[in-house]
Amino acid sequence: MKKLTALMLAAAMAVTGLTACGSKTEETTAAATEAAAPAATEAAKEEEKGSEAAKSEAAAEAKDASSLKVAAIFGGAINDGNWNETQYNGLKAIEEAGAEIAYMENISDTDAAEAARTYASEGFNLVYLTTNSYQDYCTPVAKDFPDTTFIQINGTVVDGNFVSVRIADEEQGFLQGVAAALLSETGKVGFVGGQEINPIKLGSSGFQQGVDYVNSTYGLNVEATRINTGSFTDVNQAKETAISIIEGGADVIAPMANDASVGIMEAGEEKGVMAVGCGLGQETSAPTATRMIIVKDVAIALKSTFEAYVNGELNPTEVETYGANKGVVYATDWFGDVDDEVKTRLQETIDKMERERLKFLFSNKTIVIVMELSGAFLAAPFV
């Protein structure tokens, strides 16, 4: 179109000049105009061809959702009210988009490869691996099935048909820590995590930083106790661990233990302290204790990657992170009676995160939060 406009403008200028130059100039200009017209038309045709080719290429890569088969392999129960359930919700949304779905739940790390191989051999187009501990077992499977795309949640590998996305567990833990520290009246708060895997370590470190952030920003002196039980399924162990922290003086408790999180919430309810949950619906286990849920809605990551696959756009060169910036990590409304100052201060922190003025950086086994507004920084090890 730029070529066409330029040629038409040149022709118009030639006609204008002609009027003052006599009939010979008129003949010359007319000839030029006649010569320019085919050239302009040809340029327009070429541009149109290029546009059509681009559309055809995109259409060729795009897929019909109703023709796709999508599977997910879960490390826990799909009704855990937490990590697995949010991903199952994402899988259901994929089904609503037209795809055929299948899933297996409570699959151990050592059985994940066989489950992935089963789905790939049955012609599934996409297989979601919903816990990062599956990665080492399933990357070899991807090489045997190049026509199946494997999407590893919280993975670190991007290699051909093996794609990883990362969920910002540290952001969830950070906001849990901020909320807990702001709520505390005893000056002591607690965090109970599950398995000793990087996402939980990141969440735990984020929790400590949330407490440190509140202390440095608002002049408080809140102490945090953090314990990972090593299990996502042992509800009693998680509950006993939470009770021990509460008996040590903590008046706010926060879970990040998948299925076992219910035990932590119950401990808060039974001991009469406050709780900052990590999954939608956890308030039902602790209706009196719950003050806030910091949600990690992994369903968004599943829906987003599926849409990219359907549109022929799932070709990452690096691991993409899903956090508050993509609506994956967010805070629910408050539960119960909460001081207005607490509400205001938490919202101030969330606003900083959304403006990306509060950033999370990583160095070896340390997570660092940089607050650009003040130039300050906080660091906590993965423990």
Protein described:
Helix content is about 45%, strand content about 20%. It has a 6-stranded parallel β-sheet, with helices on both faces. The protein is of the alpha/beta class and about 375 residues long. Mean pLDDT is about 85; it is low at about 1-35 and about 370-375. β8 (about 250-255), α9 and β9 form a beta-alpha-beta unit. The longest helix has about 40 residues, at about 25-60. The chain folds into 3 domains: about 1-60; about 65-165, Rossmann fold (3-Layer(aba) Sandwich), CATH 3.40.50.2300; about 170-295 and about 340-380, Rossmann fold. It is globular.
pLDDT < 50 runs, ≥5 residues: 1-33, 371-377
* Name of the CATH first level of the largest domain: Alpha Beta
Distance between the termini: 60 Å
Q: Major β-sheet, in short?
A: 6 strands, parallel
Q: Write the H/E string, N to C.
A: HHEHEHEHEEHEHEHEHEEHEEHEEE
Q: Choose one word for the global shape.
A: globular
Q: How many E-type strands?
A: 15
What's the number of helices? 11
Beta percentage is 15-25%
Structure class: alpha/beta
- If you consult CATH, what is the topology of the largest domain? Rossmann fold
CATH-defined architecture of the largest domain: 3-Layer(aba) Sandwich
Average predicted local confidence, pLDDT: 84
Strand adjacency order, main sheet:
2-1-3-4-5-11
Radius of gyration: 29 Å
Helical fraction:
40-55%
Q: How many domains? A: 3
Any idea what the CATH superfamily of the largest domain is called?
Answer: Response regulator
